Amino acid sequence: MRDYHWLHEYCLNRFGSAAALEVQLPQPKSADELRAITDDRYLSLISLRIFRAGLKHSLVDAKWPAFEEALFGFDPHKVVLMGDEHLERLMYDERLIRHLAKLRSVPRNARFVLDVAQEKGSFGTLIADWSVSDIVGLWRYLARHGNQLGGLSAPRLLRMVGKAPSSPPTTWWPRSRPRASSTRCRAARRIWLRCRTPSTAGRPTAAGRCANCR
């Protein structure tokens, strides 16, 4: 996986200068501004992020006013009451993106927003008070308690709402599983499942076999 410094250099080369790159970046909000965002707006942004995943953003954004109308302005107290029959009716609304799993995430995340609001006073309070030095912890919290907020959805959501770390995180995700080269034996290609000694896993010998298969 590429590190942050590689990504920064790549973006500088693409936009030509640090100033041009800065214009493209979202502006972080203060803690007071994050608290001032209402729960229905947070639920709307959560849902927008989920529907954008895997789709062209401009397509989703163009349809979003229809979502606001069909989903009661994302009022979590109303959305949380939407049952399966209501969601199935929405599947016939041609104004919407008719993806049942994503539609089901809306009332589930409405419950998440309401649970946080009951504990913290508002969803914005959770976002505002979470230390920016532990931004990865907030990603994991959202992924664990929200619906369809795993992977890159949580960090991209926080970028959308204006929550930004004080400095780039040094650790993003666990390292990918090691891949064996074509010179290794068949067992070595699956060595990450079998080997109990990762430091020597899958190293081919002169005979083309790993240490576990000699």
Automatic annotation (TrEMBL):
Gene3D superfamilies: Hypothetical protein, domain 2. Coiled coil: none annotated. InterPro entries: Adenine_glyco, DNA-3mA_glycosylase, DNA_glycosylase. GO terms for biological process: base-excision repair. GO terms for molecular function: DNA-3-methyladenine glycosylase activity. It holds the Pfam family Adenine_glyco. This is DNA-3-methyladenine glycosylase I.
